[in-house]
């Protein structure tokens, strides 16, 4: 993960410019020249982090995917120092390939000053956790990806609560240490993982599980157990993987792409991206060919470490007309 997200500074008199140190190989996803959006998120955050002093830590980033990124072309990250204050710093980042801007981000930093108000959403109940046996079982992971997943499944809507997807994730390799900690690397890794199987929460809310072109972050090979056993969740069918027992889908996703992505970091000092993190995904709205999804991420100790919102393009076929549906 650290090697994949590394960016190197390029000498420039007027600007902070960085280039991806290790270009993502198209074989990383098996999807020709497509690049997983989380790689750009992590690299852009790494570039911005190199332009602030160590007393500042990122608290939010707001990103727009302007167009697709090519895996075989170098990506440059141009960072503008928009504000340098005593408690807050702001950086803008433009990701450029061959003179074309394909991604922009606004990254906000703050000092770790204490406040009197402190709370966070509680860790969800009845979600099974990976066991030591699961930790050792790497058979159901795509080894081309720099992170791992253990899917729990979907908890159906009940009352005012929408349908929610739960999954565990962590970096495949331990994050290196610098003087006992490497907070910036953990934050960049979380930014990368936050884009994994996120937008799929929208069609899944309506029982749509099949894809013409599966998400590039699909990390299951279809030959092994895909979900941790749970009494409160049902496994997410994955008919596009063509494994035995796949449930029917209400339709098929013909196109899906992230448009924008906002990520809020709550407890950077307590974040350990190389240990299991639980994500909870739900969708609150869809219309006009777009959908809005939300994610909360907890550490295994129950600490809410991040929240994320994404809007994306979602196009489906054979979808029954449903209005005013509670997700």
UniProtKB/TrEMBL annotation:
Keyword rRNA processing belongs to the record: no
CDD domains: Thioesterase_II_repeat1, Thioesterase_II_repeat2
Domain Acyl-CoA thioesterase-like C-terminal, chain residue ranges per copy: 127-314
EC nos: 3.1.2.2
GO MF annotation: an example: hydrolase activity
Pfam families assigned: 4HBT_3, 4HBT_3C
Occurrences of domain Acyl-CoA thioesterase-like N-terminal HotDog (ranges): 31-109
Key words of the record: Hydrolase
Protein name, per record: Acyl-CoA thioesterase
Gene from which this protein is expressed: TES1_2
């Amino acid at each position: 993960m650290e090697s994949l997200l590394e960016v190197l500074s390029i000498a420039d008199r007027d600007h902070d410019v960085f280039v991806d140190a290790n270009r993502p190989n198209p074989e990383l996803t098996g999807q020709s020249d497509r690049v997983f959006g989380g790689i750009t998120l992590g690299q852009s955050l790494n570039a911005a982090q190199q332009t602030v002093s160590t007393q500042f830590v990122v608290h939010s980033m707001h990103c727009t995917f302007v167009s697709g990124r090519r895996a075989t072309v170098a990506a440059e990250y141009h960072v503008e120092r928009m504000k340098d204050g005593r408690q807050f710093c702001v950086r803008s980042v433009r990701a450029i390939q061959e003179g074309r801007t394909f991604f922009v981000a606004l990254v906000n930093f703050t000092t770790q000053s204490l406040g009197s108000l402190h709370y966070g959403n509680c860790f969800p109940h009845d979600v099974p956790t990976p066991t030591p046996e699961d930790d050792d079982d790497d058979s159901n992971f795509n080894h081309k990806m720099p992170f791992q997943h253990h899917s729990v499944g979907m908890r159906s809507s009940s009352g005012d609560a929408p349908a929610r997807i739960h999954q565990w994730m962590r970096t495949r390799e331990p994050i290196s240490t610098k003087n006992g900690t490497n907070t910036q690397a953990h934050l960049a890794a979380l930014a990368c993982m936050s884009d994994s199987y996120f937008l799929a929460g929208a069609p899944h809310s309506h029982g749509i599980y099949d894809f013409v072109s599966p998400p590039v972050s699909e990390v299951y090979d279809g030959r092994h157990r895909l979900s941790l056993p749970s009494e409160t969740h049902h496994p997410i069918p994955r008919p596009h993987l063509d494994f035995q027992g796949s449930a029917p889908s209400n339709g098929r996703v013909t196109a899906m792409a992230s448009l924008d992505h906002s990520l809020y970091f709550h407890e950077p000092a307590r974040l350990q991206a190389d240990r299991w993190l639980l994500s909870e995904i739900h969708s609150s709205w869809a219309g006009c060919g777009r959908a809005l999804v939300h994610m909360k991420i907890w550490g295994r100790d129950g600490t809410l470490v991040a929240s994320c919102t994404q809007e994306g393009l979602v196009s489906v076929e054979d979808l029954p007309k449903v209005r005013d549906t509670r997700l």
